[in-house]
Amino acid sequence: MNQTEMDNIFTQKFCDELLPPQTSDRFFEALYGDVSEGAYDIRLECVSIKANRVVLAFNLTQRPGKCLVCSLTYGLPNVFARHPLINIKGMIQKIKEAGVPVKEWQLGQTCENTNTLHVIPLYIDLAES
């Protein structure tokens, strides 16, 4: 699969299909029983595409009037890896169905880009084609 084909797959539209915008509210409803307790919105974005690796990112953007720094985002990679609403295994399956030769995946640690944006990288290693 060439770079152009990969670029055409990993559009923002595709990332939003993998993790629909309403997932944030559903996640906080499941976690806290109340959507208003959520301190951030979760959006999946493509960061980079290389011959052997795609890097996606779960961007956690602070909601108005909430404190992202206070939200214990550093423990989220473990939660995201197994949470059925985030469903990374389902995302990987859809990525494979789009023709991407996924070899393996892993979540990185939460990075605090700013006080209002934390990022959890999703590394997708590609099989040689």
Q: Count the domains.
A: 1
Q: Please identify the structural class as seen in this structure.
A: alpha+beta
C-alpha Rg, in Å?
Answer: 15 Å
pLDDT under 50 segments (min length 5)?
Answer: none
The total beta strand count reads: 5
Explain what this protein looks like in three dimensions.
- The chain is of the alpha+beta class.
- The chain has one domain.
- It is built from five helices and five strands.
- The protein has helices spanning 3-9, 12-18, 23-32, 76-82, 88-97, and strands at 40-49, 53-62, 102-107, 111-114, 117-126.
- Strands 1, 2, 3, 4 and 5 form a five-stranded antiparallel beta sheet that branches.
- Strand 1 and strand 2 form a beta hairpin.
- The longest helix has 10 residues, at 23-32.
- The chain is elongated.
- It starts with a helix and ends with a strand.
Put the structure in a nutshell.
The protein is an alpha+beta fold and 129 residues long. It has five helices and five strands.
Task: Name the features.
about 130 residues, alpha+beta, five-stranded antiparallel beta sheet, 5 helices
